[in-house]
């Protein structure tokens, strides 16, 4: 029996018509894509390694961070990313003026992608900063921005100092227990625990007892944090549907479908479902405990909690209670934002702290230079801890943090969707590859995906000079931030004229919090320990954040080994 005969028996005429219809649409779409000229074909850009997938594989290749870091050097500040058979061209932009339009001036026209909103909406069980845009985003930021100000963050200094001291004391025990008082250890593990305590105690007023090696709560929560984004990346073809799915009614049906994540034999889906269901209940529990206290005794009752009522969630609840009716967030939005604060602030910071220490093992003179400054400052205070303002007044420590965050932005790029056509001016004109003429502005078409190259702009030689790719903390000493570029060019970055914490309405609210964490930990560790390199080479691989692995030992998971000894 011929295939067509079997098909006509098996399928009803309606199904057959639908199949034929779908095939025609698919073939027409494919034909259109293959024959349509890209509006960006005259722009320079990398040749994709796959003609089917286009730029996607190169963009996300974990072992090719240089694709991003060397983008401006190789292709300039606006590059065409050639799409594959199934995808259109995108733009990779690291031009400071163009990014000012995209992130600040015309920010509502360049919105977070629906994939991003959907994914983070599901991860945090509801709308929060990372999944909303436009007016709703503005409304949430209006309530949340005051929570992250220097005045509030500075009050966390004693708490951060206490946590950093706990790390120091535990490290001392580890080092002393080794003959010769030097031990080789994976500092990333210790700093991951520290960062989780800093963000959980400072962010939501909760402890995971992270320093306790047997802490079940730490293990569960940390593996959820570690797993959630990598497992999501394996679900890439369902991610585009999450945004509409997460709002579908009735709720019981959505819950039922979500519970299938546990039974469908697909390990990435299962890991994702498990991670998502670990994080939310913790934040909800902490929130309702706080709410009960607050309802009973007001803000004074919250002041008696472990963080002294200084944690960000308490401040947010207070701001929410005092806000006008129309500005107020529902409980589930506050909970989702607590979850977003933890996810946004954990891996980024543990990575950044590990990076700073790793850099110091590569340059022992730098380490000594910093130690000297911290010791002098401590001596002036008779050994009393340095607070937020005193730490910020240390030029060497400040310069080292700026330079590490410039050269090694933990988040290398973000992406945006273009809502309608927009003309964007350029700081650095690009050369038309066909005519050789200079292009001073580009027309970005509706629907174009725009990648914001933060790591690329941070390393642009046009901006930072020929030594842009070198680690030179001295470049910051004695300069205002914008003077550190060679022509006093301003970027839209909210911190130090670099793009690491992004810029505009979606710039990282946790920037001051993160800097206080890094500086406090350095000020506590450096006077006590010497850090030296081992034979291992640490390579930072690209993910949502940069993650360190030992070359040849990737299967052992992320690590930053170093020798630690007492001073
Ligand atoms: C070195 C550490 C950090 C780096 C490099 C960093 C970087 C960033 C970047 C690049 C974004 C923008 C993401 C996007 O628009 O797609 C962002 C957003 C965000 N960050 Fe951070 N971050 C850090 C630490 C923190 C900390 C400690 C917190 C919390 C205390 C935090 C909370 C957030 C939140 C809630 C958002 C979403 C903001 C919004 O969409 O309006 N981050 N961060």
UniProtKB/TrEMBL annotation:
Q: Where in the cell is it found?
A: Membrane
Q: Which domain of life is it from?
A: Eukaryota
Which GO-annotated molecular functions does the record name?
Answer: heme binding; iron ion binding; monooxygenase activity; oxidoreductase activity, acting on paired donors, with incorporation or reduction of molecular oxygen
Pathway assigned to this chain's UniProt record = Secondary metabolite biosynthesis; terpenoid biosynthesis
Residues reported in the UniProt entry to bind heme: 508
Q: Which cofactors are named for this entry?
A: heme
Name one matching Pfam family: p450
> Under which name does UniProt file this protein?
Cytochrome P450
